[in-house]
TrEMBL record:
Residues 1-73, 451-478 are annotated as: Disordered. The lineage of its organism: Eukaryota, Viridiplantae, Chlorophyta, Mamiellophyceae, Mamiellales. Residues 10-19 have a biased composition (Basic residues). The keyword Transport does not apply. Residues 310-367 form the Nucleolar GTP-binding protein 1 Rossman-fold domain. Keywords: GTP-binding, Nucleotide-binding. It holds the Pfam family FeoB_N. This is OBG-type G domain-containing protein. Residues 31-61 have a biased composition (Low complexity). GO terms for molecular function: GTP binding.
Amino acid sequence: GWDGGTLGGAKKKPNKPKVAKPPPPTKKQKAAAVATEEQARAAAAEWRAATKQKQTQEQAAAGGGEETPERQAARAYRTGVLMRCPNVSPADDILLSGLKRASRVTATAGLKDPVLKERNKSAKQLDALTTNLCKPLGEYVKGFPRIERLHPFERALLELTLREGRYETTLYQVDTVRKGMLNIGKGLTARAAKAKGPKEAVNIREEGFVEMEKYFNKGKASIDELKEIAKTLRRLPVAELQTPTVAMVGAPNVGKSSLVRVLSSGTPEVCNYPFTTRGVKMGHFFIQEKRHVVTDTPGLLWRPDENRNKIEKLAIATLEHLPTCIVFVTDLSGLCGTSVADQMAIRDDLFTRFAHRRPWLDVMSKSKLVPALGGDLCPDLVGSWSDGDEAEAVATAEKLLGEGALAVSAEEEINVDSLRAHVTTTLIKHRATLVDTDAYGAFDPGAVGSVTPGAERAGGQWRTPTPMAPIKRVSRTD
């Protein structure tokens, strides 16, 4: 029986129903559509503006103050970039892997002409070797951050960890090896693709493997050097920009580590840096359920910055680039090995450089062993302690006490509670400004929340009275 199809066996296509075309839109309809689109864009812009305003208000309510271009620039930098340096494979492994993969490449299926087949195989193997050697090198070079994009503190760490120019030079050398391999590989691939016979194609391929291996081995030292650089940089401690930090600063052996221990809520950690065998102690404590850090910075000697060693430069970089509240520790007992005059010279230099940018506290340590502070002279110094030493200690103590310094003893726990209370008050008061402070932000005594009601300005300095301890924060303004 006939199934409704055509006589040829094919089914007849059903007729499509005719659909009337809609009439073209009128001018009025077009204008309405444009107006609707403009309204949607305006509504979206209004929503974005309202969201931004809400975020700004929340920041201001949290004590962050007005959003400034300096703070926006500061937040463009983030720490921890060096920890994400790529894991560089040894040069020998890259070469061996590239040779193995390239040797497994075969000619395109379907080629029967011996000349075309050998040309194709040789060209593909040379191209595969070029790719397998150049691609990882390119990824390594791109994976390392540019120095100008690093946070200033990590930039300083990089310069202290590696000798000058080593980072940029090594990356440049590895990239030069990559570019050289790429040029050689392209040339050999083109020659193999134009070989006149199978034997010539094989010879070009074999010579090319030898030539590329020889050139790669010339740059092997740079690749292995980059591997060591990556391992070193990934081990560097990461600065916590969002965590306000109390930095104990002063000459060596003045008691900074002891103060870190008594202020910490737990056992201080030790951060190790590759350029020094001495670890840096870091403890933490909580204020209003917010974590804060207290750190022992390396001891400073009285000398120009250009003559400082790497560990001293680390201390300066910490004060320069991290959100720190500076506690300068002075030892008047004569036990630290640095004269009182040199300690005060260090203190005055740092005060001039940082007190207008950072909250500053003065502390005199080992008060139990300082006669000028009511203590007893250390028995080891009896006979060597001169009247001049005593007069210098008395004059320095009077000067610092007059500026609001606090005399403490970590071993005897004298005034430790007062120090902890004052540090707590200072951090609560300045937490918002500390979080936004780095190389581009500066502590401002006149910023929102940075000066309590009743603060007096006398002699170009802010002096904030506090009922809980005789110490008063003294910071110089511009």
